[in-house]
TrEMBL record, chain A:
Source organism phylogeny: Bacteria, Pseudomonadati, Pseudomonadota, Gammaproteobacteria, Thiohalobacterales
Keyword Metal-binding assigned: yes
Name of this protein: Sulfite reductase subunit A
Pfam families (alphabetical): Fer4_22
Sample GO molecular function, one term: metal ion binding
Organism annotation: Thiohalobacter thiocyanaticus
Domain 4Fe-4S ferredoxin-type: 258-288, 337-365
Automatic annotation (TrEMBL), chain B:
Entry GO MF terms: 2 iron, 2 sulfur cluster binding; flavin adenine dinucleotide binding; metal ion binding; oxidoreductase activity
Residue intervals of the FAD-binding FR-type domain: 6-106
PROSITE patterns, alphabetized: FAD_FR
Cofactor binding notes: Binds 1 [2Fe-2S] cluster per subunit.
Species of origin: Thiohalobacter thiocyanaticus
Alphabetical list of Pfam families matching this protein: DHODB_Fe-S_bind, NAD_binding_1
Transmembrane segments: none
Cofactor(s) it depends on: [2Fe-2S] cluster
Keywords: 2Fe-2S, Iron, Iron-sulfur, Metal-binding
Residues annotated for [2Fe-2S] cluster binding in this entry: C242, C247, C250, C258
Domain of life: Bacteria
Protein name per Swiss-Prot or TrEMBL: Ni/Fe hydrogenase subunit gamma
Biological process per Gene Ontology, one example term: pyrimidine nucleotide biosynthetic process
UniProtKB/TrEMBL annotation, chain C:
Protein keywords: 3Fe-4S, Iron, Iron-sulfur, Metal-binding, Oxidoreductase
Bilayer-crossing regions: none
Stated name of the protein: Sulfhydrogenase subunit delta
Species whose genome carries this gene: Thiohalobacter thiocyanaticus
Pfam family, one: Oxidored_q6
Residue ranges occupied by any NADH:ubiquinone oxidoreductase-like 20kDa subunit domain in the UniProt entry: 18-155
Keyword Disulfide bond on entry: no
Length: 375, 278, 260
């Protein structure tokens, strides 16, 4: 996660009116392009056929439990921080068939894996926090010797166009987690947006191939200086912080802290935070037979440590109340995650704050837990 | 795409024994050409059994790892899947994935005295070790077998325990909290039994399985009797759905039970054991 | 798993209701043919089969209990059925007609009917489980075909149907719908309501109105507090809970907090 200092490595400047050449080059390379579009009052990754599909002039206001789009006269298309979902749904899909079972008249079973279709995907406009989250999902789903074939298939075909964030939301805190706002090399192309277009950097050999097809102009010194100023402004604009370092011992020492019961009074135990979290990976398995009993499809689908089923074993629910479920989420995300993946599971995107229906703020809860736990 | 570990193999029920009104043992034979032959596992590992149209459930393997013609699972009918499995008969098919997880430390146990402690109905993982040790008696020292149940009627395999009690260098002690006529074993708790074994325990390797409060009480007493904490191993239970460390349900603090467990060395989980919420 | 060799007998009974849940059977499409091949539907008035007193393996019951005659009928149905499944909000949680439980129904009778003495209704409209043991509840207004076929399939296979009790939010997020409460300030009951509908309303940019009843572990106090912040008045808040599934403990209590 390079957040500055290194040589920018820009290859040139892509004028806004030439943005479609990027889409055409990606399509020619076999990718389906998705990028930010306004739909249902939010910025969502949807099919992108032209630069004019992008949310030009759209900014956003985010606060705990609050998300609104605002239309401004800026010519920019990436003047917002993060939409409701990161890259997660495109790799670890919300619901996916794993295998099918055929059952013949004698009750004999045949199992068939469901092959995910070939669908190389280019995602345009990903943020540094989302790339950091992707690296964590990669660690989980692509564990050496035990890679999840369904995830791996889609990951293989992924092309990532990062756009550095210049408009952090009030809920963002990626600077404090070290994950943004500037993208490092864990993407294929990285762009910095200016009023008149984009500075372009290739971060992979796949990206290099695409860059060579773009009608790039020279990036002026004035443009470079402007990008530098905006990058710095994006860092200093962030209002929230997550305490640095490994919080594991502090949080596990606070296991009986009264704050857990206090947050449980507000928490709806609804699973919205885990569903929008770009690193949460829990999922459940369900088997759906046809009515005639001849076929069944075995699915996996997003689950959450906030559901009753999550901690259920033969008649016992180990975490029956909201207090224990919230504690499980937070101590895992910020605590045991360090043991499992070598770092915190939080990348500072702030989605769990914005999309909590009652506006619970993870940074506020953590500081309350740490303050009184004696950190 | 290699999805093999996440997609079951076909297996056929070749035997079925009703152990108690709610406990039964299914003997299975893999008859999927894609399945490994021979099928190999370590005592303490588990398989995911798939009941058509309903779902999967993790069940530990109780048969001997070197007899792969019949892979046996002892199951208690408590939920949707296990109640459905109870209705299967020889000739019926189901799905099997496995084996998963870490089994018992049987290499480390060679040449040592073994104490095998089980409580309640959760005894299958430890019974697999008893069977294993009985078949390879010369590899181990003295064998202590301790089993406690709430009610004497909950005890399965009483005749096996009584047969094991007749083996050389083997001590068996059974206890029931509630017992009536016909019970000539101890009435009380598992923790009462260690003193009655008549074997020194300070050099023994201990393997436990059962309800967590029972295991905690047993470990406390065993440590008092001079057992080393590092010599205590226990088999834990959590919700398991994928069995390959992906779905997140079996998390136990920093560990995924299906990968780092289900068998743990006591010092590794001492801080979590019995703490509500883990 | 052995399928029963004789075709199981099924009945669909109706009490006070709009008949909408029975459409979950009639709207099955091709599966209706499959169903009729697999079970023997002996009583289903809306589809033309009439044998209300038949002994059956599975009875699906729609509607709530409102008269003394209803009470007698449901007892008989229970006696005649091995497995009793309530379908829909009326049968599981009283339905819309149970809103009269919060009013002076006698006064309404006198105001509406010329000769109220001809009426023979009970003091309240009640869910089926208030009178007899219910083996499985399918929630929703109306229930959908997926729920009904899922339950039938499980029963045919000899296993207990799966109980869905997570919050609507879980499915809303799986469907990748944008949260109407966060993005639009629309009051939504999804965070306290049982899943099963596929997050139908939020997917059409409408707040959930709790027709599947309470989910497990519902925090109505916190949600009400947030609704107050969105500007809902006490009467509007009460109506969120005292709607289609008012005769459930969490929703009765949550609504009562805002009664005048």
């Amino acid at each position: 996660m390079a957040t500055g200092g290194a040589s920018p490595g820009w290859r040139g400047f892509l004028p806004r009116e030439a943005f479609d050449t990027l889409l055409r080059a990606l399509e020619a390379a076999g990718y389906e392009c998705i990028g930010p579009r306004v739909e249902d009052g939010a910025i969502l990754y949807r099919g992108l056929s032209a630069g004019s599909d992008l949310p030009q002039g759209v900014e956003e206001a985010q606060a705990p439990g609050h998300y609104r789009l605002q239309h401004t006269d800026t010519p920019r298309c990436f003047a917002w921080a993060v939409g409701p979902q990161a890259i997660k749904p495109h790799l670890f899909t919300p619901r996916e068939a794993l295998w099918e079972t055929e059952r013949d008249a004698d009750g004999r079973l045949t199992f068939r894996p469901v092959e995910p279709g070939p669908r190389p995907l280019a995602i345009i406009g990903v943020r540094a926090c989302d790339l950091a989250a992707l690296a964590l999902q990669d660690q989980h789903f692509l564990r050496a010797g035990n890679a999840d074939p369904y995830y791996a298939h889609r990951r293989e075909g992924l092309f990532l166009v990062a756009v550095n964030c210049t408009h952090p939301a009030a809920t963002c805190f990626c600077v404090s987690t070290g994950d943004g706002p500037q993208a490092g090399d864990d993407c294929d192309l990285a762009l910095d947006e200016l009023d008149e277009g984009y500075a372009v950097r290739a971060a992979s050999s796949k990206g290099e191939t695409i860059v060579q097809q773009l009608p790039l102009q020279a990036l002026t010194e004035a443009q470079q200086a402007q990008i530098g100023r905006e990058r710095e402004a994006a860092r200093s604009a962030q209002q929230r912080t997550m305490p640095a370092g490994n919080l594991r011992d502090h949080l596990f020492n606070a296991w009986e802290h009264p704050r857990w019961a206090q947050v449980a009074e507000r928490c709806l135990s609804c699973g919205n935070c885990t569903s929008v979290c770009p690193t949460c990976f829990c999922h459940q398995q369900v088997d759906v037979p046809t009515l005639d009993g001849g076929n069944a499809t075995h699915y996996r689908e997003w689950d959450s440590c906030f559901t009753q089923n999550h901690s259920y074993i033969h008649g016992i629910t180990l975490r029956p109340d909201t207090r224990s479920r919230y504690r499980q989420w937070l101590t895992h995300k910020l605590g045991s995650w360090h043991d499992q993946y070598g770092r915190s599971g939080c990348v500072g995107c702030g989605r769990c704050i914005t999309w909590c229906p009652v506006g619970i703020d993870i940074t506020e809860e953590v500081s309350a837990l740490l303050a009184e736990a004696g950190k | 795409m290699n999805a093999s570990i996440q997609v079951p193999w076909q297996a056929e029920v070749v035997s079925r024994v009703q152990e108690t009104p709610s406990v039964f043992t299914l003997g299975l034979r893999l008859d999927d050409p894609a399945a490994p032959a021979p099928y190999r596992f370590a005592p303490g590992q588990f398989n995911m059994l798939y009941l058509y149209g309903v779902g999967e459930v993790p069940i530990s393997v109780v048969s001997d790892p070197e007899h792969d013609d019949e892979i046996q699972h002892t199951v208690r009918a408590v939920g949707r899947v296990t109640h459905g499995l109870a209705a299967l008969h020889p000739g019926d098919q189901l799905g099997l994935r496995g084996p998963f997880g870490r089994g018992w430390p049987l290499e480390a146990a060679v040449g040592r005295d073994l104490l095998l402690v089980t409580g309640g109905l959760g005894c299958a993982p430890v019974v697999s070790v008893i069977n294993y040790a009985m078949q390879r008696r010369e590899r181990f020292g003295r064998l202590g077998i301790v089993q406690g149940v709430k009610h004497m009627d909950d005890l399965i395999w009483r005749e096996r325990y009584e047969a094991w009690a007749g083996q050389p260098d083997t001590q068996v002690q059974l206890a029931a909290d509630v017992a009536g006529s016909g019970w000539n074993w101890h009435v009380g708790l598992v923790t009462d039994l260690f003193d009655r074994l008549g074997m020194p325990l300070d050099q023994a390797l201990v393997m436990l399985c059962g309800p967590e409060p029972m295991m905690i009480a047993a470990i406390r007493r065993l440590l008092e009797l001079g057992v080393e904490a590092e010599s205590v191993w226990l088999s834990m239970e959590r919700n398991m759905q994928c069995a390959v460390g992906l779905c997140g349900h079996c998390q136990y603090g920093k560990d995924f039970l299906c990968r780092q467990g289900p068998v743990f060395n006591y010092p590794d989980i001492r801080d979590r054991l019995g703490v509500k919420g883990f | 798993m052995h399928e029963t060799t004789a075709k199981p007998k099924v009945a669909v009974h109706k009490f006070s209701s709009c008949d909408g849940c029975q459409l979950a059977f009639l709207d099955m499409g091709e599966d209706l043919l499959t169903l009729s091949a697999m079970v023997d539907i002996v009583h289903f008035a809306e589809a033309g089969m009439l044998d209300a007193d038949a002994t059956v393996d599975v009875a699906f019951v729609e509607g709530s209990l409102n008269t003394r005659h209803d009470l007698k009928r449901i007892q008989a149905i229970r006696r005649n059925s091995r497995f009793l499944v309530t379908i829909g909000a009326c049968a599981t949680a009283g339905g819309l007609q149970a809103l009269r439980n919060f009013t002076d129904a006698d006064a309404w009778h006198s105001a509406v009917y010329a000769t109220p003495e001809y009426l023979d209704s009970l003091a309240t409209a009640s869910p089926i489980k208030s009178a007899v043991h219910v083996d499985l509840e399918l929630w929703g207004c109306p229930v959908n075909t997926r729920q009904v076929t899922g339950a039938v399939r499980a029963l045919l296979s000899g296993v207990t149907p799966a109980v869905e009790q997570d919050k609507v939010c879980m499915e809303c997020k799986r469907q990748q719908a944008v949260c109407v409460m966060v993005a639009k300030g629309t009051p939504c009951m999804g965070p306290v309501t049982r899943t099963g509908c596929g997050a139908l309303c939020p997917r059409f940019e409408r707040g959930c109105y709790a027709c599947y009843g309470p989910a497990e572990n519902p925090n109505t106090d916190s949600l009400s507090h947030w609704f107050e912040g969105l500007g809902l008045l006490p009467e509007q808040l009460r109506e969120q809970y005292h709607g289609i599934t008012s005769q459930t403990e969490p929703f009765t209590a949550a609504g009562n907090r805002y009664r005048k």
